[in-house]
Amino acid sequence: MNFEELDYQKTALGELILRRRRLLQLGGREIFEVKLNDEFLMSSLFYEGEVALTDLGLAELTGEDWDVVVGGLGLGYTAAAVMKYAKVARMVVVEALAPVIDWHQRKLAPNGTLLSKDSRCRYYHEDFFMLARGDGFDPDEPGYQFDAILLDIDHTPNSLLNPNHADLYSEDGLMRLRAFLKPGGVFGLWSNDLPDKGFLAMLSNVFDQVDGHIVEFENPIQGKMSENGIYVAKVEGP
């Protein structure tokens, strides 16, 4: 079978579908896809940007026993990249859609086995943006500060899955987020578009060191290279 629907759920955001198919033009390669209503959210065909979010963010850290937050589980590529770092002591994955966590726990998603068997990984079924407005991302300790917060939920800071997310991408929202980072901590953000000068300037008003990165990867469907943007913002160290 070249196409299989692995799961269908009605959520607060609409109809959520996980499906698997084989692309004959790529030699029958197995591809996992997530759709929300009529929109494709993600595909396992393209995950270089998600991995780069982890690698570029964690490259800025020093010390040992890192505590990391991943905002948005998706198909698990950012989280799986975090688990490859031996210095990571714990990873809290904040995901608003319970079926997405369930896909990983049932090992339906491509990184489900890797994440669910690693004792350092903790799934947290919550709205990342509500937590950012409140007591933060630790399920047990309000106000806890992390070494890194890696966010991959919205398409870009200006193209949102939900208009309720908008306040995070303001100077006040970013300042609230900074409060949940340790000295020397890092905020990393994935974007479908290249780094935006205006948003980089806003980050620079809140954080002590800011960089925008371009990640290039092959797009076999279109037969050309595609690009994502990664923002990395760091708090001054102790």
Could you name the key traits of this structure?
single chain; 238 residues; alpha/beta; Rossmann fold; seven-stranded mixed β-sheet; 11 strands; globular
Q: Which structural class best describes the helix and strand composition?
A: alpha/beta
What's the total helix number? 7
Number of strands: 11
CATH architecture descriptor text: 3-Layer(aba) Sandwich
Strand line-up of the largest beta sheet? 7-6-5-8-9-11-10
Distance between the termini: 56 Å
Profile the largest sheet. Answer: 7 strands, mixed
Low-confidence stretches: none
Architecture overview:
Helix 6 (171-178) crosses helix 7. Strand 3 (29-36) and strand 4 (39-43) form a beta hairpin. The protein is globular. A seven-stranded mixed sheet has the order 7-6-5-8-9-11-10. A four-stranded antiparallel sheet has the order 1-2-3-4, with no helix packed on it. Helices cover 23% and strands 38% of the residues. By secondary structure, it is of the alpha/beta class. It starts with a strand and ends with a strand. The chain has one domain: Vaccinia Virus protein VP39 (Rossmann fold, 3-Layer(aba) Sandwich), CATH 3.40.50.150. It contains seven helices and eleven strands.
